[in-house]
Amino acid sequence: MDRVAVGKSWSVRKVWVAGAAATGAGLSFVMLLVVGVYVVGGNMSGGVGKTLAKGAVPAAYQTLVQKWGNLCPAINPALLAAQLYHESGWDPDVVSHADARGIAQFIPGTWAAHGIDGDGDGDRDIWDPNDAIPSAASYDCELAKYVKDVPGDQTNNMLAAYNAGAYRVISSGGVPAISETQNYVKRIRALEKSFAAPVGRVDPSKQAAGAIAYAQTKLGTLYLWGGNGTPEQGGRFDCSGLTKAAYESVGITLPRVANDQYNAGPHPKREELLPGDLVFFSDDLTNSRAIRHVGIYVGGGYMIDAPRTGAVIRFDPIDTPDYFGATRVTEDGAKALPTAV
After folding, report:
1. pTM greater than the 0.70 cutoff
2. Coil, helix or strand for 295?
3. Rounded to whole angstroms, how far apart are CA atoms 23 and 14?
4. Strand partners, 294
5. How is residue 341 annotated by DSSP?
6. Full DSSP string of 108-171
7. Where are the alpha helices (DSSP H) in 15-72?
8. Rounded to whole angstroms, how far apart are CA atoms 182 and 291?
9. pLDDT in tens, 18-66
């Protein structure tokens, strides 16, 4: 289910099968394929660098995040992006129930003390991302200074101070034993991996084979916009409904829409794709928030997807002009995603 107008066309070709249900032989092939990637992928290691993943930050904010994410050693562009996404989903006009405002979700009192004139135009505007994003980075770095002598990971302590206050971190000698604070630190560090371009190959998903197996059982099912596969809907799906259900079948809960599913893990390059990766498509290749279609990669340049109204769940090629990128779903990455952005 996408955040764009219903019925927008996406050019695909019907390949391999014409809506047939998955056969035992086909299932065995995919299982062997996925098992095989565990063998070759066993020595892969992921890493978080200072380069943002392709399109993970909307183009309008990418330069700001890249610049201000290097303000001090405790933060990096991917970490700053993770915080902004978690706080507002890149919406510069959002207001929370607690009156937190704008893309960085500053409370007015906190803004009065810590907001800066990031663009040098003579004012400090809580609603202007050109001020709010630099202010978020500056505030992070201020907190990092407050807790710089606290034992443990400097960035984790900074994030804990952001959530619980610097005094609690100092008095606790590190991240305090507060479940909300510990979960906040874990969420942001997991999301950080989604916004960073990996410095090496990333580990294959252990749940990939099961997700593919589930999707294969739905081959030939007629598409339904907004479909979640419920009995009332005749077991029908749209694109992100299918991917959500496939990963839910192996214990991973994804968001409902495609552009949020993109943030459920790190992003392998096209030549690094493994079966089970989610693959995404968009008319704007600079902005993950514009993603409008998703499928499950099965190898050989093909995915299983629910293409559009009037079509059935089927195999389709991924190498089209609107190919945006991929996500290797992880449990931590999925759990880190905010429930509403």
Report:
1. yes
2. strand
3. 18
4. 280
5. -
6. HHHHHHH---TT-SS---TT-HHHHHHHHHHHHHHHHHHTTTSSS-HHHHHHHHHHH-HHHHHH
7. 24-41, 59-68
8. 31
9. 333 333 434 444 444 444 443 333 333 333 558 999 899 999 999 999 9
